[in-house]
Amino acid sequence: MLSNQAGGEKRTSLHGHWSSRMAFILAVTGSAVGLGNIWKFPYVVGENGGGAFVLVYLVCVFAIGMPVMMSEILIGRRGRRNPIATMELLGKEEGSSAHWRWLGTLGVVAGILILSYYSVIAGWTLSYIVKSATGTFAGATAAQVVADHEAFKLNTGITSLVHTLFMGLTIFVVARGVERGLEQAVRFMVPALLIMMIVLLGYSINSGYFATGVEFMFTPDFSKLGWNSVLAAMGQAFFTLSIGMGAIMAYGAYLPEETSIAGASATVVIADTSIAILAGLVIFPLVFGNGLQVDAGPGLVFQTLPLALGQMPGGAFFSTIFFILLAFAAWTSALGLMEPAVAWLVEHHNRTRTQAAIIIGGVIWLLGFGTVLSFNVLSDVKFLAGTIYDNVDYLTSNIMLPLGGMLIAVFAGWVMCRNSTADELGGSGGIYRAWRLLARFVAPIGILFVLINAIT
Ligand code: PFF
After folding, report:
1. Which is more confidently placed, 353 or 1?
2. CA 182 to CA 394: how far, in whole Å?
3. CA 236 / ligand 1 centre spacing (Å)
4. Is the beta carbon of 35 within 6 A of some atom in ligand 1?
C-alpha cells in the first residue's frame, strides 16, 4: 500500500523535485547555515552573557528545533504545495480546518520581514569583501577597525547600494527555479565555509586567549540569564535552523518519498550547530585578545575578524575569502526566506517564477530600508524593542518563529493522524515515538512556557 492519502496516490510538486537526497540535505543546510551562525550567534551570545545562554540554546536546538524541523519536512512532503496551500489541504484532509492556512501565511510574512533585514546585513558582507581585498584592514588597530565600521554603518548611500545588490542576486537565483538555481549554489559553499572556519579556528587557538573564549562560551552563569535571554536563545535556535516559518516546509515539498526525514534533519541540525559553535570559538578569543566589547551587537563579526586577519600575514586574502563565503552563506539562506512567498504567488496568482521573484523581492527591498536607516538617519527612532531593526528582529525571531514552530508541532503531533505521520517518518519505531513525544508535549509546552514568561 502506498499511503492513505486522498486519491490514494502520492502527490508530486509543481516545482520539480530534488535530484537526490544529498541535494535536499545541501539545500536545507544551505538555508540553515547563514548569517545566523556567524554574524548573529556570536553577537547574541555576547549580549546575553555567554555560557548559560549557549546551554539553553543547545537544549532548544535539540529538544525543540529538531522535532519541529522533522514536523515541518513531513508536512511539506505530505502536502507538496506552498506552505499556505499545504496547510489548508492537510487541515481539511486530516479532518480539522482549512483555517490552518493562516499558519502558512504567518510563515510567508515572517520570511518577508526577516529577509528585509537579512539582506541589509548580507550587503555589509559584500562591502567587506571589497574592503578586505583593497587592504583597508592591513595593520589596522582595534580603534581604527571599530571606527571604520561605525563610519560604514552611517553611510546611507553605500549600505543602500549593497542591500540593493544583494536583493538583486537573490531575485536572480530564485527566479531560476528549484533545480538549476538552488542546488548549484549550495553544493560547494557549505563545505568551503566549514574549512574556512577550521582555518580561522587555528588562528584563534594561537591567539593566546582561546581559554578565555572557551570559558566565556561554556561556563554557565545562570544569574545572568533572565527570561528575555531564554526567549532570545529559543528564538536564535529557530532562526538558525530556518524553522517555524515554512521555508523547510517548502523545501520538504520537493523531497523524494524514500528519503529519511529523521536522518536528513539530524544531519542538518548537527552541521548547523557545529558551524555556530565554531564561529563562537573563533570570535570570542579574538574579542578578548583585542580588548573589544563582547556586547558590541550586530557589528561584532565585522569588527573582530577584519582586525585579527589584518594583523596576520596573508590576512587580506583570508579576510576576502571569509567575507565571500559569508556572502554565499547568506545568499543560500535568502533563497529559503523567499521561497514560501514565491511559491505561493506562482500557485495562487498564476505568476511565472520570474515575475513572482521580482514582485516579492521588490517588496522586501523596500522594507529593507527600515533596517538600512536604523543604523544611521533613524537610529534615534526607538520604540518597544529598540530601533526599527531591533523590532523587526524581535518580532520575527522571538515571536513569529516560535509561535509558528509551536503550531507546526501541534499540527503534526495532534491534528495529523498517527498513520499519516508514521507513514512519512518511515514507521512507528523508537525514533517515531521519540519524535511524537517531543512534538506533542515537549516542544509546544516548552515554547509556550518561555513565551509567556518572557512577555509577561
Ligand atoms: N537560518 C538562517 C541563518 O541562520 O542565517 C536564517 C534563515 C534562513 C531563517 C531561512 C529562516 C529561513 F527560512
Report:
1. 353
2. 28
3. 10
4. yes
